[in-house]
# Entry
Amino acid sequence: MRIVVIMRQLADLVEELEVNDEASDIDREFVKFVSNEWDEAALEEALCLKAVLGAEVVVCALDEPDVDQTLFTALAKGADRAVKLTGHDPEGWVRGRERARIFAAWSKDNPADLILTGVQAADDLDGQTAGLLAGMLGHPHAAVVVGVEVDGIGMRVHQELGGGIVGESFLGLPAVLGIQAARQAPRYASITRIRQAMQTQTIEEVALDPIVAQRVATVRRLYQPERQSGAQMLEGSASEVADQIVELIRAKGLVRG
Amino acid sequence: MGCAVLVVGEWVVGEIPDVTLELLGKGRRVAGELGGELGIVVQGSNIDLSSLGMADVVYHVAHASLEHYAASAWEEAVMGVVEFVDPKVVLVSTGTVGMDLAGSMAVRLDATLVSYVLAIETAGDSVVCTSQLYGGKLLAETETDQFPLVVTVIPGSFPAAEGRTGGSPRSEVVELDDRLTQVGARPIAVHEPEVAGVDITAAPLLVSVGRGIGSEANVELVQELADAFKAPLSASRPVIDQGWLPKPHQVGKSGKKVTPSVYLSFGISGAPEHLEGMRGAETIIACNTDPHAPIFEVAHYGTTIDLFDLVPEITERLGG
# Structure
């Protein structure tokens, strides 16, 4: 069995994001790029399936800032191969439809039994990779997946349907799954192991012809939302703010003693 | 034949979900502006026609593969209706059903897809959508005049009440047995949530922790505060996905909806999915170092003081 995990880099949401002068994209110059956290869950699920089934796990990502770090980390965690696709502008916003087209082009020459990727990414304006890619490859698919078991010639998947309800269904292979959470928290790779992977393993680079995605809505303006009047900010030192918070909660009768 | 807007109904279990009513209400307006009818596609046998009065036509597809939920079967059912109706705009939520169906359908229909939409307006021959990106930190205004257009809408963006009224729609059964029998996916079951030891929905005070806590070891700091308040500790999704707290502690779309008297949050930026689960709290007090964090829009009181400085101070005042 061959499992492909599609990963990507994304602006770190912990940091403040600025918009470029044209208001067409984020200002990418000073942004820290990190691995999309849901892709890390997809990788974890793939590695768990590998442990059960003896599958080959191939991670595949577009060339994007600091993607080598993500790919070597995946190798250190136990992925068998890492592939980096080039041919697009690695410094720009690769729109979702284009991203999916690139992976579809690569997948046609590199078929997998199962393709896993993160359920979503924070800039998925054109839809999520799993559904788009499944449509392009003609594969069955499922999103918001929180459980995967192999069942004969197919898989049983568990999907969150909101409010804690989980839908269980069967689908045939090959399939594409958008992973919300793996069966366990993503494993940790030590710096030593990542360095070891860098010294002993390589990232395979594959150059593809540039793809111009059709059917993409034009971004007229990207902007920060107006702050709603919203919260009254508590002023002062940590000690003074702590006093105010305790008083607010005491006023509700919720501080005992 | 010939609806301008088609809404994808999203019943899986229970009542008609609010998001379907929200889409019907908004769909009514968009259909009017585009000069056509409003249709809704409903799957399975769990249908209450009387609640769909806002639509002009209800397209009903029934098949064994549509009971419960299997993504590819639902997709085939909606595709069958879309091909029959040929709408200009298809509306579905940015929930599981929308994430399942929208991408694949848009590719198969050669349609434009716009996701995470909060607002839709028509402008002449174009549709202008406003989408929420980067966890609510940025908005993107897009324009397209290419139809068909598939739009996935964030639940809660439009009032459900506007989809609740209306007349009595025509009902059409769309026969798709041959297509649905060939789908290689089938539903197995729907599992209701586990009854857990901790019930965060019942507590008058919740102390809640998010990504900003940084590591599992740090969770103890906020747990001590929760213990000092004798309140349960809840969390946003990143903390649960990391395995730092068990699933029954999760607040948000894929966790629990909570309405405590006071919701005291630390290191939660307020992704839309989280806000959906806690904005009904009577008083929200939020601590986050990013002054632009979306949580401050729904919070009543806020502070940007580092939680690692603030939490021990509060715990100390409670004698913890």
Remarks:
- Helices of chain A lie at 37-53, 67-77, 96-109, 129-137, 191-200, 238-251.
